[in-house]
Amino acid sequence: MLLNFFPSRSIAWYLGKTFLLRCLAMLAMLVLVLQMLDLLSEAGNVLAYPGNGDGELWRYVSLRMPQIISRFLPFSVLLGTLIMLATLNANSEVVAMKSGGLSAHQILAPLMLAALGVAIISYVFNERITARATATLTAWEEARFGPIPNDRGVKSNVWVRDGEDLIRAGTITGSGRQVRLQNVDIYDRHGDRLISVIAAKNGYYTGRDWRLEKVRIFDVTLGTSRDVAAITVGKGIRPDQFTLSSVDPDSLSFTELKDAIRTLNESGRPVASLEGALWHKITGPLSALLMPLLGSVAAFGIARSGKLFVRAVIGMALGFAFFVADNFALSMGNLGVYPPMLAAWAPFLLFLLVGEAVLITTEE
């Protein structure tokens, strides 16, 4: 019987259903409260754009809510676990199941299976909905909650270094060899001195360098300016240095981010922080799988001893310790202190072992 994690179908169904209902209730409460607070802080910015009204507020809610759900789903699983297990303990249901021959692992097995289902749904939700909503909301915020440009690939205010010179592109459209630049400024420097400032209306990639048109050159030394029809600059600048200058991992799905990392890596750009974010797209949803294990201390022990509250607090502390460790590891990965794989997976594996060790030591 100890090798059978689901000896009773009725008990497994009861525990799994109760667990999911508690988690759903906690998620609804968190999303409702946090969405209201966020809307109160951002409503003024949304309505500041002329013509925006109730429709734009509801649009903001529809774009912001997936982010809140994605971020706080693991918290809701933790709170749902603690409330459910503490209730079962207080009603002596855990004692009844253990007296019937169920081990601690068999009691938690239906919860772990349900949490795995939550993790899978969370991953799909992030890939199909959250990433797209984040990209749209980011573009809308950059437009100050006005009309979003039809070309979602538009980037603005990108700086690229060409030796000692600095190049700023006001607007970038297209990708690959079809990249187009608008409102280009080039700061021609020699050492610490600024020699000239070149302003061009538009430019494009010729395959070897960049051709700028409608150019005005201002000579800093002489204080004079002259107009030129076209010039070529930036022979060593690749198109991806403009289009991939800033990659937001939250706005991309796993596959899209993986492709962006490969392109950046081929061009010799640093990708350590993006690789950590890539693997965290898997470990983030999987953190829901840890919550029943970390919160299991609230299920066991005698409720009449008066230590049920203490056990619930310990379970909550373990859960929040995981979130702190996870964020810390990601930060260290972004700084290059931890390898990306270690930064993403180490907290998950560590607290999986911690939760299992606590369960075995105290209950098995």
From TrEMBL:
<dbReference type="InterPro" id="IPR030923">
    <property type="entry name" value="LptG"/>
</dbReference>
<dbReference type="InterPro" id="IPR005495">
    <property type="entry name" value="LptG/LptF_permease"/>
</dbReference>
<dbReference type="GO" id="GO:0055085">
    <property type="term" value="P:transmembrane transport"/>
</dbReference>
<keyword id="KW-1133">Transmembrane helix</keyword>
<dbReference type="GO" id="GO:0043190">
    <property type="term" value="C:ATP-binding cassette (ABC) transporter complex"/>
</dbReference>
<feature type="transmembrane region" description="Helical">
    <location>
        <begin position="107"/>
        <end position="125"/>
    </location>
</feature>
<dbReference type="Pfam" id="PF03739">
    <property type="entry name" value="LptF_LptG"/>
</dbReference>
<feature type="transmembrane region" description="Helical">
    <location>
        <begin position="12"/>
        <end position="34"/>
    </location>
</feature>
<protein>
    <submittedName>
        <fullName>LPS export ABC transporter permease LptG</fullName>
    </submittedName>
</protein>
<feature type="transmembrane region" description="Helical">
    <location>
        <begin position="308"/>
        <end position="330"/>
    </location>
</feature>
<keyword id="KW-0812">Transmembrane</keyword>
<feature type="transmembrane region" description="Helical">
    <location>
        <begin position="342"/>
        <end position="361"/>
    </location>
</feature>
<keyword id="KW-1003">Cell membrane</keyword>
<feature type="transmembrane region" description="Helical">
    <location>
        <begin position="68"/>
        <end position="87"/>
    </location>
</feature>
<dbReference type="GO" id="GO:0015920">
    <property type="term" value="P:lipopolysaccharide transport"/>
</dbReference>
<keyword id="KW-0472">Membrane</keyword>
